[in-house]
Specification:
217 residues; 7 helices; globular
Length: 217
């Protein structure tokens, strides 16, 4: 590894570590601010995935990246709504901890299913407008179910997470592990670095989902 790459990695690690430390102290002082900053960062990343995938679609013949980008556009929209609905934000009248938790679990479900299916479209084209419409309908359907009160309760104040929410997190983890397996099976059809970064991303997501089965407040 050349010196320039080493310096790049070192600077990335230093900036990353400093950011984590800063966010930790922010979470101790104002958890709502911490949550908002972290969520907005993830929304920007999701939007970046969509913009990159959408603008690169004319340069490759694989629909998997385009499908992933379109899915993350929906994920970004639902995560933004989750952030605005978070208890204490005051952006959505009557918003509760249950509402934001329902939006979270539904969004992670869409994300995990997409990651599981993505390898199937390697080397294949997708109908872009149809895919955009389909994901828009899925997102709108999720919002309608939640705000109509037809989505299962995920959080009860004073009690914590419901059984549905905890089981859903483990189902999502299973889907993500399936996505890892599918990615491994198709690894020879993908760029090595892309598959490695995707695998690392999915692995960290599994770890975070397991963590989200434990909180009570």
């Amino acid at each position: 590894m050349d010196s320039a790459r080493v310096k790049s990695w070192v600077s990335t690690i230093v900036v990353g570590a400093a950011s984590v430390v800063m966010l930790f102290f922010v979470s101790r002082v104002n958890y709502l601010l911490f949550h908002t900053v972290v969520e907005l960062f993830s929304i920007v990343v999701a939007m970046g995935i969509f913009i990159l995938a959408w603008n690169a679609r004319t340069y490759h013949r694989s629909g998997s990246l385009t499908l992933l980008g379109i899915a993350y556009l929906t994920v970004a929209g639902l995560d933004l709504l989750h952030t605005l609905a978070y208890e204490g934000m005051g952006m959505i009248p009557g918003a509760t901890a249950n509402l934001s938790t329902q939006l979270w679990i539904a969004t992670r479900g869409i994300e995990s299913v997409t990651l599981l299916l993505m390898p199937l479209w390697l080397g294949r084209q997708i109908r872009e407008r149809l895919s955009l419409s389909a994901f828009a309908m899925v997102g709108a359907g999720v919002i309608a179910l939640i705000f109509a009160g037809w989505f299962p309760v995920c959080f009860v104040p004073g009690q914590g997470l419901t059984g549905f929410k905890i089981i859903s997190e483990y189902v999502i983890c299973a889907l993500l592990l399936g996505a890892l397996g599918a990615l491994w099976a198709k690894r020879k059809e993908m760029d090595r670095r892309v598959s490695q970064w995707l695998a690392a991303s999915i692995a960290f997501t599994v770890a975070s989902e397991i963590a989200f089965t434990q909180y009570v407040s």
